[in-house]
Write a structure and sequence with these properties.
Keywords: 4Fe-4S, Iron, Iron-sulfur, Isomerase, Metal-binding, Pyridoxal phosphate, S-adenosyl-L-methionine. Belongs to the radical SAM superfamily. KamA family. There is one protein chain. By secondary structure, this protein is α/β, with parallel strands linked by helices. The strands form two sheets. A nine-stranded mixed β-sheet has the order 1-2-3-4-5-6-7-8-9. It has a three-stranded antiparallel β-sheet with strand order 10-11-12, with no helix packed on it. α8 (185-196) runs parallel beside α10 and α12 (276-288) packs across α13. It has 14 helices and twelve strands. It folds into four domains: 10-89, no CATH class; 116-346, Aldolase class I (TIM Barrel, Alpha-Beta Barrel); 350-378, no CATH class; 386-419, no CATH class. Bound molecules: pyridoxal-5'-phosphate (PLP) and iron/sulfur cluster. Pyridoxal-5'-phosphate (PLP) is lined by residues 117, 119-120, 123, 125, 174, 344. Pyridoxal-5'-phosphate binds at residues 117, 119-120, 123, 125, 174, 344.
Length: 427
């Protein structure tokens, strides 16, 4: 069933009923009027004494910010409202689970200069701010997000640009934070201009939750700036169909009309979107607003978000319910970002049942089991005749791909048998 999008009804909220439309649609007004403390929150949500006390405790450790726009999407009656759960702090955030880690993805460890994580061979993550317009309760970077931004001052960014400029393998920059689009238009233009001066930077990606939590930020001026620096991709972060409003649609369409390919990276969250049908509805809505579902992330092991975690099996179940059952373009890749900085590991149902040299047995989404007969005379690709194979920058230098290409072994760093060697490396 095709869902109708509607504008957020802010006039029904006493706190906002007198706000002028031009203010409401102004992102700077939204930022200035973000809900950052309990007394302001109380004006949009009735709070029990207990909630009051819990909030006060939690806010001592973690920041809260909720844009009026996003606050107007929260249900006042339903404490299980997904938007409310993503925005309003609860006491469980103070619980540190035994599996929690402060920097589970080793973003600080894999960082050659502050603010830059260079983990993968050909791309790097550039954190340009610690601030956001809305602080997601499930944020994986909560160890740094919400801090003041002095350390992201120009000097640091320039060091990152220098590193990128002297590292020709980097052909793709992911600009993230915090939320990069919280920066002023001129600062965004500066960052994109500096990156574009580096010849080997082929593509730029911006990760921003603004289309979801503050769609008013996507102005014509911002689109004009981004347009100058193409190819630029924007990945946003919708987690629930309720977030796909008329305002969000306009924001995403504006970017799409500026030639930006839009993608979505959602996080699998307990009690919010851990349901195949919620996810399917959201993927359909995303395609309608010209956003291509890209990733679903397994919730990370960051501190204070254990109450949002599901099993990994839940993600596999969601993909099982999407693949084949709906538009292929509506099916993102489900990934687990490996604790310890291993990067994203895709996980999905098994479609490969068995194989011989001659045949591969596969199953489809309906449960049909089929066999594919492999060619017996396949000679393989001749690297010596291929100009791409002689391009060193394209050849995988790590991992199983390297073993396939060159043979060899990958040995784990710690093996018990290593302690039993005779000292000259022989066992
Ligand atoms: C996610 C991520 C990227 C980009 O990964 P893709 O799979 O290319 O989207 C790059 N660097 C770091 C550190 C990341 O976490
Ligand atoms: S917008 Fe991104 S960085 Fe900011 S709080 Fe949400 S998840 Fe964290």
């Amino acid at each position: 069933m095709k869902r109708q999008y509607s504008n957020v009804d802010y006039k029904s909220i006493p706190l906002f009923k007198d706000v002028k439309e031009e203010d409401w649609n102004n992102w700077k007004w939204q930022m200035r009027n973000a809900i950052r403390d309990v007394p302001s929150l109380e004006k949009v949500l009735p709070l029990s004494d207990e909630e009051h006390e819990h909030l006060a405790k939690t806010l001592k450790k973690f920041k809260m910010a909720i844009t009026p726009y996003y606050a107007a999407l929260m249900s006042k009656e339903d404490v299980n409202c997904p938007v409310r759960k993503m925005a309003v702090p609860i006491l469980q955030e103070l619980h540190i689970d035994e599996s929690d880690l402060s920097d589970p993805l080793h973003e600080d460890v894999d960082s050659p200069v502050p603010g830059l994580t260079h983990r993968y061979p050909d791309r790097a993550l550039l954190l340009v701010t610690h601030e956001c317009s809305m602080y997601c309760r499930h944020c994986t970077r909560r160890r740094i997000v919400g801090e003041t931004d002095e350390d992201m001052a120009r000097g640091h960014l320039e060091k990152a640009f220098e590193y990128i400029a002297k590292t020709p393998e980097i052909r793709d920059i992911v600009i993230s934070g915090g939320d990069p689009l919280i920066l002023s238009d001129s600062r965004i233009d500066y960052i994109l201009t500096e990156l574009r001066k580096i010849d080997h930077v082929e593509i730029i990606r911006i990760g921003s939750r603004m289309p979801v939590v503050l769609p008013q930020r996507i102005t014509d001026d911002l689109c004009d700036i981004i347009k100058k620096h193409h190819p630029v991709y924007v990945n946003t972060h919708f987690n629930h169909p309720k977030e796909i409003t008329e305002e969000a649609r306009l924001a995403c369409e504006k970017l799409a009309n500026a030639g930006v390919q839009m993608g979505n990276q959602s996080v699998l969250l307990k009690g919010i979107n851990d349901c195949s049908n919620i996810m399917k509805a959201m993927m359909h809505d995303l395609l309608r607003i010209r956003v291509k579902p890209y990733y679903i992330y397994q919730c990370d092991l960051s501190e204070g978000i254990s109450h949002f975690r599901t099993t990994i099996s839940k993600g596999i179940e969601i993909i099982e319910n999407l693949r084949g059952h709906t538009t292929g373009m509506a099916v993102p890749t489900f990934v687990v970002d490996a604790p310890g900085g291993g990067g994203k590991i895709p996980v999905m149902p098994d479609y490969l049942i068995s194989q011989t040299e001659k045949r591969v047995v596969l199953r489809n989404y309906e449960g049909m089991i089929t066999s594919y007969t492999q060619p017996s005379d396949y000679q393989g690709h001749k690297a010596s005749d291929c100009t791409f194979c002689s391009d060193e920058s394209l050849v995988a230098k790590d991992g199983v791909a390297k073993l396939l290409n060159e043979g060899g072994t990958i040995i784990p760093q710690s093996l018990r048998r290593e302690s039993r060697t005779n000292g000259n490396g022989k066992h």
